[in-house]
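The protein record passed on for reference:
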Amino acid sequence: MEDVSGKMEDVKIGVIEKIQLKTMSLRAIAWQSHV
C-alpha cells in the first residue's frame, strides 16, 4: 500500500505541475495578445 500511495502522490504532483504550466502559458498568451 505504501508503494501505491507514493505513486499516487507523484501522479498528483505531476498533474498539478501540468495544470500550472498550462495556466502560465495561457496567461502569457493572453498577456501578449492584450499588449
